[in-house]
Amino acid sequence: MPTTVIVVEYDPSWPALFRFFYERLARTLGSMAVTIEHVGSTAVPHLAAKPIIDIDVLLADEADLPAAINRLANIGYGYQGDLGIPGREAFLAPAQDTPHHLYVCPPQSREFQRHLAFRDYLRAHPEEAKKYGDLKRALALEFKDNRSAYIDGKSEFVARMTDRAMAAKARV
């Protein structure tokens, strides 16, 4: 992935791009995948984002992970481990693909639930999505060449919104 932080306006082609990856992943993983979700900022209409599609796959059974790793390797994905975040396994996208992040999660993954809650909360609260987009644009200008500082700069907002989203889901 490039080190320069670039945030762009929402691109209406992102859902179709996700659909392309979805179909390939569904064919590859078959019944091992309970669901394949478009998460992250590109999954929220009208939200500015880094132009990188985030995808979470929820496995039917944690025991399917080795087979999933092998099947994904056969189509060019490189297994990276959990990268320090338990509850999700990261994969490097094939070099020829449009940039995207792929995470494979066990059935009880808290990270998977947090990603969905955050996405759904921003979809349901466009005023919060706008604040998030404004924050990301400002951070991208300030920390254009410092991805870690960009991520750190938005972490408090993301944590606050995710906590609200998870609390709202718990009430339902």
General description of the model:
- The protein has 172 residues and is α+β, with helices and mostly antiparallel strands.
- It is 48% helix and 16% strand.
- The protein is built from five helices and five strands, in the order αββαβββααα.
- It has helices spanning 14-29, 65-74, 110-124, 126-142, 147-171, and strands at residues 33-39, 53-59, 78-81, 89-92, 100-105.
- The chain has a five-stranded mixed β-sheet with strand order 1-2-5-4-3, with helices on both faces.
- A hairpin with a 7-residue loop joins strand 4 and strand 5.
- Helix 3 crosses helix 5 and helix 4 (126-142) packs antiparallel against helix 5 (147-171).
- The longest helix is centred in the C-terminal third of the chain and has 25 residues, at 147-171.
- The model has no long low-confidence stretch (mean pLDDT 95).
Low-confidence stretches: none
Number of helices: 5
The portion of residues assigned to helices is 40-55%
Q: Profile the largest sheet.
A: 5 strands, mixed
The total strand number stands at: 5
Strand content: 15-25%
Instruction: Describe the strand arrangement of the main beta sheet, using strand numbers.
Output: 1-2-5-4-3
Arithmetic mean pLDDT: 95
Radius of gyration, taken over Cα atoms and rounded to an integer in Å: 16 Å
N-to-C span: 38 Å
Q: What is the approximate shape? A: globular
Helix-strand topology string: HEEHEEEHHH
Structural class: alpha+beta
